[in-house]
Amino acid sequence: MSVPRIRRTRTAALGLALATAGAIALPSGTAAAAGAADAPGPLLSYVVNTKANHGQVKKAEREIAALGGTVVVSYEQIGVVVARSTDKDFATKLRSSKTVDSVGASRTAGIVQSNDVEVAEPAAVPTAAPADGSEPLWANQWDMRKIGVDKAHEKTLGSRRVVVGVLDSGIDATHEDLAPNVDASLSASCINGGKADTSWQSWQPTSSDHGTHVAGTIAAAKNGKGIEGIAPNVRLAAVKVVDDGGFIYPEYAICGFVWAGEHHFQVTNNSYYIDPWLFNCKTDPDQAAIVTAVKRAVAFSQRNGVLSVAAAGNENIDLAHKTTDTTSPDDTTPAPRPIDDNCVSLPTELPGIVVTTSVGDKGDKSFYSSYGLGKATVAAPGGDSRYQLPDTPDKNGRVLSTVRGNKYAYMQGTSMASPHAAGVAALLASTHPWAGPDELRAMLQHQADDHSCPATFDPSGDGAWKAVCETSGHGNGFYGAGIVNADKAADWWRL
Q1: Bridge-partner residues for 165, per DSSP?
Q2: Rounded distance between C-alpha atoms, residue 354 and residue 270, angstroms
Q3: How far apart are CA 65 and CA 84, in angstroms?
Q4: Tell me, what's the pLDDT at 127?
Q5: Distance (Å, rounded) from C-alpha 246 to C-alpha 233?
Q6: Nearest Cα to 285, choosing from 89, 116, 475?
Q7: Span 36-59, pLDDT tens digits
Q8: Exposed, middle or buried: residue 363 (CB in 10 Å: 0-12, 13-18, 19+)?
């Protein structure tokens, strides 16, 4: 049994676009276009990689149009064009162009409209605030005390100069604990084919609490309403990259990272993997093109001062020793396939990403958390509802945070661990305003609390969640450099 990143309930209607009638003039070396009598394929989205300059991007756009494709958006900064086509041979034809470096379908199912239902465990808010002046739900926030947030807040609540981009399902900007910190001027939706939409409604959550929960962990206001976040004085930018089917397709994430870079966020949180492939293998031309496009977008954001934090995954997979992927593609029919080090989880395994594994109340690896020596950067509380129950009023091993409608709920996963690391990074960016992404990443690791490998890891005792922790001189596979420490991050003098 796995702990899903997002639970999906789908009711989908597949829409097919009509093929263009007649022959199409193609670039030299490509085959003639199919006639109108040929049946079209499903409408698919593609990432087209070319040189990052105006002339080459425009040339690629013309060649896409000549093949009957439609350009959705172009990112000249990184040389990536997002296009759509119903031609089943679209990618093959375009790959013959000297203008194009690579091209790949970003999904295996036709573009759909779906519904996503995310399940969270509700939490009741006390009718009276605690006598000690703490937040009403603070007693159940074991995760915050685990990393020293209470001590950190004696020194700083974070700086308004710092912006954390939440690349997720949107943020409920009307929530009483989030409204003070959500910056609408920096928020956008990327799910319209990978093109940014800045209208307020576009980046509001429609069917998932995921992004709102993540946002609360990072920066819920310290206002006596419910909970408090790690950095309650920083600003949040909602960047919606999850559609109503629960999917994060490559073009959505590309848009999100470019948006973060263009607006010079200090930190982004990425509690997802990019669909439809849990791992994108560089030996497959479609998946290789996806890796190239997303890598360019992440690198662009890093050059513009963004540190990106990501979840390690909830499959209890050793990312350093991959063998089999049984869940991909997740937008059509998954089929088992062998994988190796040439196959990477996006954006998790890209250079410069802070890969966050999950721990429970005892500080041990959560039963579901993926891991890997040389892959895990740090660990943070993500919850463990089975084997690590805290001594709190609710005795709930999950993480408590905000959800839509001025409510609060418990959730668990590396999706919850990642925003803890992002929140600590936001404190570091607040206390060290000179620091860029490389410096922030190094400090996050250096200040983390060491946590050694267990002799054995088999929490259920029956091998269901068994895992092997490897160690090197620079940390280990379960916890990376250690568990993040908010108290240390609040010290301006500490590197």
Answers
A1: 237, 268
A2: 10
A3: 10
A4: 62
A5: 30
A6: 89
A7: 346 789 999 999 999 999 999 999
A8: middle
